[in-house]
Amino acid sequence: MRGTDLTLLIDAAKASGEIAKSFFQKNPKRWDKADGAGPVTEADIAVNEQLERDLRKARPDYGWLSEESADTTERQSSEHVFIIDPIDGTRSFIDGSNTWAHSLAVARRGKVTAAVVLLPMRDMIFTAELGSGAQMNGAALATSTQADFNGSQILATKPSLDAKHWKADTPPAFTRHHRPSLAYRLSLVAQGRFDGMLTLRPSWEWDIAAGALIVSEAGGRITDKTGAPLAFNGTDPRLNGVVASGKAMHSAILSELAET
After folding, report:
1. Domains by residue range for the chain, with CATH
2. Is the C-alpha dihedral spanning 50, 36, 76, 7 positive or negative?
3. Residue 31: which H helix or E strand, with range?
4. Confidence of residue 19 (pLDDT cuts 50, 70, 90)
5. How many CA atoms lie within 13 A of 211 on its CB side?
6. Is residue 90 a contact partner of residue 67, using CB atoms and an 8 Å limit?
7. Can you list the pairs that 23-31 forms with residues at least 24 positions away whose Cβ atoms lie under 8 Å?
8. Separation between Cα atoms, residue 62 and residue 223, nearest integer Å
9. CA 80 to CA 59: how far, in whole Å?
């Protein structure tokens, strides 16, 4: 009997974790992608091969979008698509840090319906299914109730503080934090450990898809930087930035951003 997409993703993520751990802190081969797209290791490739083999065998009618696979137009004709980042935070993985993650999602007609973010070295698994809430290691998640952007705790990179992004030329007085993995940042917002997360440059779907559902199912709100809903499996798989937070603060963040 066919299991749910969420169960399939959980099992696949756990298998990914075992593969990645077999390379971790063992000086895996690495190289740099073209056009400054960042590093990739043999662990990324091994995980991607396992995921594509197992997931596509289980759901042969689903499309495929992964950071480590050549993209094709075939996925555009599929009602469902896997959106995968085999290792989100590859630099963290290379450096021997424990904040890298596996990010796995299924989207149906542009909307994410099942999601898993697994941090194998931290024994943390974030899961969500559309309409069923979000969990971390089985415990229900809820986003922050912080309403004031000033004084909030926000996950963001330093470039997000550039004057060009803000109506007042300077950002509000929030405290900036950082984690290498975008999927992990979104999961931390869903957990309520941080009030919000923003990235104001084009963002790849595979970095965002799983975390987006986890945030929304934890009671938060996530949009692009203009406030438009996120849609996945786009012809160009990049989003126009991302703003995620508890519902009480989301409009306050958008109101401070410059129109770009």
Report:
1. 5-140 (3.30.540.10), 153-256 (3.40.190.80)
2. positive
3. strand 30-32
4. very high
5. 33
6. no
7. 24/93, 24/96, 24/121, 25/96, 28/94, 30/94
8. 25
9. 9
Q: Does the CA dihedral 181-186-190-195 come out positive or negative?
A: positive
For 187, the enclosing helix (H) or strand (E) is helix 182-191
Answering whether pTM is above 0.85, one says: yes
Residue tagged 């996950």 (tokens):
155
> What pLDDT was estimated at residue 36?
62
> For residue 134, what are the β-bridge partners?
128
Q: What is the mean pLDDT of residues 147-160?
A: 96
Query: Which two three-digit tokens encode residue 21?
Result: 């751990």
Cβ contacts of 118 within 8 Å, gap of 6 or more: 13, 14, 16, 17, 101, 102, 104, 124, 125, 126
Q: Is the pLDDT of residue 234 over 80?
A: yes
